[in-house]
Amino acid sequence: MRPLIDYCLTVRRSISWQRKFVRANKLFLEYLEQNAIQGEEEWRLFRNFSNTLRIGTIDPETQEDPSGLYWTGIGVRDANFMINQLSDFFEWLSDPERSPRAGKFNPAYAGNRYDQRIDEKAYQFRRNKAFLGHSWATESKRRARLIRGEQPPKVFAKRPPMFPEDRFAELLSVGFKVAGRYDYRGILITLMLFGGGLRVSEPFHTYMADVHPHWEDPAQAFVAVHHPSLGYAPNDWTNRSGQRGSRQEYLSQEFGLVPRHRLDSKLAAGWKHPALDDKWYMQVHWLPDGNGYEFGQWFMQVWRLYMEQIQGIPRNHPYAFINTDQNCGGIYTIDQYNKALKNAVERIGLIFGKAYGTTAHGFRHAYAQRARRGGIDPIIIQRIMHHCSPESQQVYTQPEVHEQMAAIRNAAEVLRQNHSQLPAPRTLLSELMI
């Protein structure tokens, strides 16, 4: 247990990553418990485990499992993720002062000349695409591992799971109206996702002090989403050393709280390390739609109504979005918003689900599609969506199926106008029949 805990504290990854890492170790130990053979080489044990992850332990003919594990097998991507997690852990654990034997489970493997060339090309590809790739060594000094994951097939999504834009105004005006009262808090968060392109976790790091009328256009809202721990504390707050304090210091000294991205509770809110606009925050870039909706203005108007609604409610935290009924004044959670969004979506007759683009992430997809249709340069889309890599937004901006079919029809028309020399379809068909 101690090496496991030491490793998690050393690599400093997200809570979600740590949960998956612990699960991978648990499965590996369960496998060894039932399948370890005295004297078997370590790399063979790990190879068999990696194969078992993908195919399961149940005999397809007899439906029996002598090991008693009854694993059904998991997807290629999940299996590869676990294999990589464990391999990195083994490499770290193989230090002579820890457990040298761990390095034998998935040792470095030079391979033949073909393997070496493929590995070097893969390294160069990752180097060229990495945000700080220019700082990497020009040649890889790390050999590939003996046990590797399986290459999954590439699948293009039929349709980006984006929220239907023609229903957005209805979602705000009808969906977020409960018992004759508007849920201003839910509307504000939804505007940040749909009109500002944020990830669902990011609005939950917003403080009351992070929203202001824009200095160039007071009708528009200027919203800054600060790094949960590195961001500067609001209102020029100073720490015990008399210096401008960070949000981590501010939360600790003023409220006895921990930044939400470091929690493992219902109050947790993730932070995917977006590219920031300045130290240490990112600005919400409002992107209007084709109907003339100015989401920055909407946000400012609703924000004033929300401030009136929560005026006088005591709270012991700086966060903008709070509970107004049960646990009044407490911190509003992502789970609570998702439930409110589900109810709002169903009130306007839509089905709530990722495949329909009606979950919270569907708003970010709609933002990216709107940016693409508006002709915004991909580099600018990268900046306004706060992606570290210029290719990250390609997942969000891929064309819909009807756009692909329209492009094919246009291409067919161009080919017809060019008077192709290919035989006419009817003539070719008659010749084939003869």
Q: Give average pLDDT, whole number.
A: 89
How many strands?
Answer: 7
* Uncertain residue ranges: none
Q: Do you know the CATH topology of the largest domain?
A: hpI Integrase, Chain A
Strand content: under 5%
N→C terminal distance: 76 Å
Order of helices and strands: HHHHEHEHEEHEEHEHHHHHH
CATH H-level superfamily title of the largest domain: Intergrase catalytic core
Model description:
By secondary structure, this protein is mainly α. It has three domains: 2-145, no CATH class; 165-395, hpI Integrase, Chain A; 401-433. 43% of the residues lie in helices and 5% in strands. The chain contains 14 helices and seven strands. A three-stranded antiparallel β-sheet has the order 5-6-7. The mean pLDDT is 89.
Provide a short characterization of the protein structure.
This protein is mainly alpha-helical and 434 residues long.
